[in-house]
C-alpha cells in the first residue's frame, strides 16, 4: 500500500490535485448558487488571502534556502517555523484549500464547497503524512517541539 501511495504522490503533486478540483468545481457550477457582487467580493478576498499565504510561505522557504518540493521533503535544510508556519504546519496547502473554496464560491458550485475537506484529505494522505514523516526523521527534537505547538491546518 505504501508503495502505491508513493507512486500516487508522484502522479498527483499538490498543484495537479488542486487543478483537478478546480475543474470539478467548474463542471458542477450552477448559476442558481451565485449571488452577484457578494460572490465576487467574498471569492476575491478569500483568493487574495490564500494566494498571499502561498506566496509568502514560498518566499520564506526560499529565504531559508530549503526545498519547496513536496516530493523531496527529506532534502529540507531548515525547519521553517516563523511567519505563516507559526500558526499552520501547512500554510501552502491551507492556501490551496482557500483557493479551491474561493473558486467554488465564485462559480457557484455547492459540490465544490462541500469538496474542500475532500481536497484537504487527499493532500494530507498523499503528501502531508509523508512530508511530516521525513521532517520528523530529519529534525527529530525540533520537529517534535514544533508539532506539539502548531496544528496541522489551523
Automatic annotation (TrEMBL):
The chain crosses the membrane at residues 36-55, 101-124. The keyword Nucleotide-binding does not apply. Gene3D superfamilies: 1.20.120.1630. Pfam families: PEMT. Coiled coil: none annotated. Signal peptide: none annotated. Keywords: Membrane, Transmembrane, Transmembrane helix. It is found in: Endomembrane system. It is a multi-pass membrane protein. This is Isoprenylcysteine carboxylmethyltransferase family protein. It comes from Citrobacter europaeus. The lineage of its organism: Bacteria, Pseudomonadati, Pseudomonadota, Gammaproteobacteria, Enterobacterales.
